[in-house]
Every structure is written in C-alpha cells, then in structure tokens.
Amino acid sequence: MKRTTVLLDTDLLIETKQLAQRLDRTVADVIRAALTEFIAAHPHKRTFSFAGTGDSGDPDFAHNVDEYLREHTDPQLGWSNRGADKGREENQRA
C-alpha cells in the first residue's frame, strides 16, 4: 500500500472517525472501503481516441469498433500490429 494525504472538511472527518470507532476499524480502513465502493459504482469504460479516423469500408464497423479493438488489443501491451505483420510477410514473399 502507498501512503497518501486526504483533505476532509471537519464534519466529514468527525463522521469518519465516529464510524471507524463504531465498526472497530481504523479511519484508513473506512476511507479505503468508501473509495472501493465509489470506484466500483463508477467503472471506467475503456475507449479509443483514434476511432473514427479512417474508413474501413464496413458500414457497421463504427457500431462495433470498441468490441473489435478490445478483441485486437493486448491488455498489457496495447495495440498490436499482428495483422500488419502478417500482411507485410505475405507482401515480401510475392
């Protein structure tokens, strides 16, 4: 875990301390739990800023672009040129 500083107004700090005491937990535990619930309630939907910059020739592609990119994007490495590499290899053989 990493240490950080959070600025709270006085009333919120008092309520947080009281809740922590009632639950027999630390203030840090209460804040972590609250942030975890808040973040889970507001999931980040990954979008791609370069979508829509070209013409695929497929009229339905714009409706399916996020699904297509999720399928063709490595979660750790990002966008891959796997298809481009395959095309390059075929062109070099010809």
Briefly summarize what is shown.
The protein has 94 residues and is mainly alpha-helical. It contains four helices and two strands; from the N terminus they run αααββα.
How would you portray this structure in words?
- By secondary structure, the chain is mainly α.
- Helix content is 55%, strand content 4%.
- A two-stranded antiparallel sheet has the order 1-2.
- Strand 1 and strand 2 form a beta hairpin.
- The chain is elongated and about 60 Å long.
Quote the beta fraction.
under 5%
Distance between the termini: 55 Å
- Mean pLDDT level: 80
Strand order of the largest sheet: 1-2
Biggest pleated-sheet summary: 2 strands, antiparallel
Anisotropy-based shape: elongated
Derived structural class: mainly alpha
Regarding quaternary structure, how should these chains be classified?
single chain
Give helix % range: 55-70%
Number of strands: 2
Radius of gyration: 24 Å
Q: Low-confidence segments, ≥5 residues, pLDDT <50?
A: none
Tally the helices: what do you get? 4
Helix and strand string, N-terminal first? HHHEEH
